[in-house]
Amino acid sequence: MATEVTPPGPGARLPSSPARKDFYWLRSFIAGGVAGCCAKTTIAPLDRVKILLQAHNHHYKHLGVLSTICAVPKKEGYLGFYRGNGAMMIRIFPYGAIQFTAFGQYKEMIKKNLGISGHVHQLMAGSMAGITAVICTYPLDMVRARLAFQVKGDHKYTGIIHEFKTIYTKEGGMQGFYRGLMPTIVGMAPYAGFSFFTFGTLKSVGLAHAPTMLGRPSLDNPDVLVLKTHVNLLCGGIAGAIAQTISYPLDVTRRRMQLGAVLPDSEKCLTMVQTLKYVYGNHGIRRGLYRGLSLNYIRCIPSQAVAFTTYELMKQFLHLN
FRET partner for 138 with CA separation of 20 to 30 A, picked from 10, 147, 173, 277? Predict the structure, then answer.
């Protein structure tokens, strides 16, 4: 997602070594994985609270966002904010790696094979990259969600391995690990698409109209102009807020379906349509489909800001520009 300045002239610097192209996919994979881990670690406590509120955990279902944030350390200690985070890190590295790497590949493929360029191909490539990453890492997201939903003293699973075994034996084998996949895919398409689209649009417009104020030469390639760090953070945050607003009801649907047998009303949330109707009918829009959205703004803005900024920095560190 680098924006090139003018083509290099006779005196311009050339790539320092052909070796910069070696293992490009691997370096891109690592950059995406590190970006994802940094982003999720930053907002792990808020992510745990969001899951507790979305699925109406009976220990916290009568509390709001701030009340839940205060109640978690009292009931479970401060480490309670990081319950399920081990599974999250196992999932998020390949997720971030696949998403960012696939985005670049899909963008080139769409431009080359379909002849579509500009901002539209970023929207399409972002959606396809998000869907690819979700499908590849969904079982780990399922495991992480259920661990995060557990409350100290009220455990159904003792750890990641035990949960994998329990889901496989009691919830239909491999099919049990993909419960809630459809709303996840439907929600991920607009979320990832608009996230990459918004960030890419803000970046290109900013560098085109105010290159000196907003940009600087890339550390690994002076012929490429990149956003300054604080501008990267701002653009990433705006991208996250817009994308999350569009896709949030499907995120709520996904979580309830993932939690499945953990919830007392699981038989009413077997399909995406059933779950949407149930949540809307029993809790309405504000307290159901958009429950926890205020918290999600607080978590998704820094998450996307850190993700895009870290990835841009890692691209320079690993000579991807």
Answer: 277
Residue type, 130: G
Q: Which residues contact 84 (CB under 8 A, 6 or more apart)?
A: 48, 144, 145, 146, 147, 148, 149, 150
How many whole angstroms separate alpha carbon 207 and alpha carbon 203? 6
Q: Mean pLDDT of all residues in the chain?
A: 83
Integer CA distances (angstroms), 83 to 57, 144, 148, 151, 201, in order: 14, 9, 5, 9, 36
- Asked if residues 130 and 189 have their Cβ atoms less than 8 Å apart, the reply is yes
β-bridge partners, 3: 225
User: Considering Cα of 60, then 66, then 72, then 75, what sign does the dihedral take?
Assistant: negative
DSSP state of 224: E
Residue (of 123, 114, 99) closest to 201 by Cα position: 123
pTM of the model: 0.74
Nearest residue to 319 (alpha-carbon basis) of 100, 38, 24: 24
**317, HSE (Cβ side, Cα atoms, 13 Å):** 13
Amino acid in the structure at residue 29: F
